[in-house]
Amino acid sequence: MAIRLTKTSKVIFAISIVLLSSALGYLIWRVNQEENLDPDDSEAGATVPAGCSASATEALTSNCLIWFAEPGQTSACIANRSACCGNLVDVDNGCERCLCCNGTWVTGNTGCSTLCTNNGGYGSCEEVPVEKCFCESWSDACGTNCTFPDGVQAEVDAKAANSCKPYIAMCNVSTGDYVIEEYTPSHVCYNKVSQCNNPFAENPCVTNVCDAGAWVTRPTGNMSFTSDISYSATATDSNGIDLDSISVKLCTGTVTTCTTGQTLSPTKTGSSSPITISGVLSSAAQRLAAGTYTMTITWKDSLGVTGTNCTLTTTFTVLPQETNPNWDITKGVVGLCIDEGTESPKSELTYTITVRNTGDGAGTISKIEDVLDAKVLASFVQSGITAPGVFTDGKIIWSYPSPNELSIAAGATKTFTYKLVIDKDHFGTYANEVTLTPVGSTAIKATANILADCDVAQSDWTITKAVTEACIDEGTANPKSELSYTITVKNTGTGSGTIAKIEDVLDTKVLASFVQTGITSPGAFADGKITWNYATTPLSFTAGEQKIFTYKLIVDKDHFGTYANTVTLTPTVGTTKQATANIGADCTITEEEKPVVPETGIFDNTLGRISAGFVLVIFGVLVYNIPNGVLRINGEKKYKYRVRFEKKVANK
Predict the structure, then answer these.
(1) pTM surpassing 0.70?
(2) Which residues cross the membrane (predicted)?
């Protein structure tokens, strides 16, 4: 059935649609609206008024939150926080909450200027910077709401200076006055300086003492008479050093502190601290006499304090002047070749050791010891060593035991010589070191290095190999090839030499029966090689000498072909040498005449043979069937099987 709507129904229906759409839109809008909780539902969930700090709230009552302004937003926060007060259940508590300048909070509806008896010059306490006071009343407010005039901190510093006490400035928030009070454990702001931030200073009592000093260059122990002796020290003090108080004294003998000795005039470098104190005690211009000395340096700080920390003392001894001054030793070596350019040259090394007394007094020595290179053999050391030198255990020693020390006058020189002769097998660098031991002085050393090397005549080697062929019974049915090998070894060097072996590796086709007798002695064939072995007694060659080694092979016609082999020469000293020789063993062969078999070409391959067989089979079949009329000539067609069938039917 059809539903018909009257005009009225249509209007009602349209209105219903509009209302439903509006309700649905409101619900969607409400769902997406920011949540705004009633204080009755949550004490901490109210929307933060503009200009107010979400982190600075306090519960005025159980039903209202009080907001504090963000920095610079006091007016905005005051103007917008009434939204909270609008949610108050008990309006008698007032809409304003004021922080009075005496540190107390009050609430009401009459405004902060009325609610607070003293606003510290501010129109409203909300305009006062929001800081929490840790003290209980204005008299101990620690300056929470005070602004100290310029210069108060300096006054506090001056008050504490040299007092050994701490001081703090306190303000009167009613009058703006301030006082500087001693900061004691009973003070209301004790241990609250960092919280209250009042001007504060302390100067703990410290007893002034002289700080410290240290040696930079300190003369100590035994000092040579000819040594230059100087001193240097630093004086350091936090209060500075009194330059006029610096004193340097030098006493003879050993004392704890020198106070009455010779007064020295040091150099003072620096203006306050640290100060460097330095000077010269002995130099070439003026030497200290031999003996023991004590030197003391003292000073005061700028406050006049001195003490052990401001005192430096040292003791040293100047030794008597020596009459046996510096010793000097040198060592030289000269090389000379003997039989140079021959096969066995030698190098003669002549060593000269020179000892000098360069001082102004005579001196003695107890030993000269020359440690030779480890390559030196006893046979290298020649006779004629300067007496009393002897060679033993790789050393040449001149010994002068007490009381027979060798005396050398001031400015005098002594020389000591010896020789070594080095054979060619030990040529190389020779390094040795000589040590001089004076009596009463430290030992001194000298070294000498030299290369022992002379020209040696040496052997050099060449090896050649040649082969020739001769045919035996050539032109017959069984000719043979005779291969004659010649090996030539020559010493092309400037000196004689020896060889240890000649080894000729034959071609792999060579049979033992091919090798003929008559190989040059002591050559022998074995395992496919001909070897001349001189391992036990090397074969000698003079310079330019050559020696020839020969052997023959006879190759039968069945082994004709190319023969290649390589010979190797092994010298006793040096690298191996090689030579090769290749030849074709081939001679003319004459064969006997044999009957000639005709060549038809039919039976020369398998296909021909098979084809001929088929022809013969077919031919036989034809011959066999001739009696049956296989070859009958008849122009009329015969239907043999049809005729037979018809005959059979007719006979029936």
Answers:
(1) no
(2) 12-29, 610-631
